[in-house]
Amino acid sequence: MKSKTPFIIILLVLAVAIGGAWYLKRAATKPTNPTMTSAANNGNTSAVRNGTAPPAAAGVNGAEPPHTLGPASAPVRLEEFGDFECPPCGLLHPILEQMRSEFGERVQITFREFPLVPTHQHAMAAASAAEAAALQGKFWEMHDLLYENQKAWHELFDVRPVFEGYAKQIGLDVERYKRDVNSDVVAQRIFQDGKRGHYLGVKGTPSLFMNGREIPFESMPADSLRVLINKELSGSK
Amino acid sequence: MRSASSTLSEPSSPQTKRRNLFYIAIALLSLVGLADSIYLTVQHITGESVRCTIISGCSEVLSSSYAVIGGYPLASIGAFAYFSVFSLAILAVFGYRVAGQWLLPVVLAMCLVSLWLIYLQAFVIRHFCQFCLLSAGITFTMTVLVLLNWRLNRP
Question: Rounded to a whole number, what is the distance in Å from the CA of B84 to chain A's nearest CA?
């Protein structure tokens, strides 16, 4: 019996280790509170204003109006919480573009600012640049430039001249852009989006929600995302 | 069974009791290391560590090219190593002397790997991950214990 005891202990520890790993994996891939997220993601601002929405939903709609691509009636609504300085967000950018070109009007994409400060030193400046461009109707143009040139600017000491260059490149009134980038309107929009992100349980970027349910990070590559969108589309028919 | 009983040591001598205390301490430490490595492995598999998070350091370290060896997350290899140490230590407690003898080279190898990983974090990646530092701390403590045990029981 003596010689069997250590093997029993070892097997027990192995079983606990495997069980623990399984539990952690399950917890990590579980969507964050789907009931709450879908309530907040309905975009039903009138319900909030009329007091018919749950109290916790008040003030968590994010900046209004949100930056969206695609029709509001699209059966699949993707909401990204992104940071322009975050490399994985830069990798997600072409994937979302690809989804948009593949699914067209059936997909709506919303971008929410979630700059990771102080992890990324220029994240706030980049978010402000995009929001300042939005005030002149060029959010997506600036959004694309920031992501596409992420490697070129993220290690610079001073990004302001680079972003002003982008503003000029996309045809903004640069003087107005310079004023807007430090304005309260821009700061408030970033704050509101961040508030919504925190409400939805966003802890890192990119975070992607599909019709209110968080998509696990490992499902963000194009092939997995395509499968999820198709599944959602077939479910909505 | 014959080979197992042939490796069993004399029970209950003061020297054996002291040795067993060392082995139990190593087994307990390896359990903490195992939990830490499993957590990091799951983080890697689910992609959480590849994400950018508010706490910097871990995502940079765990999404670096050094976090994967031969297609396997380094943390999973760490989990295997800690489990091996735990198994050897438990077998040693129950008198399997060969298992006790294997502890020294295994823990020393882990110590060398930990030193290399700390060098990578400090000078190549330039970010520290607290979970990796915890693992290194456990390995260094185990190394001290194994070396002490070896020194005290030297013939």
Answer: 10
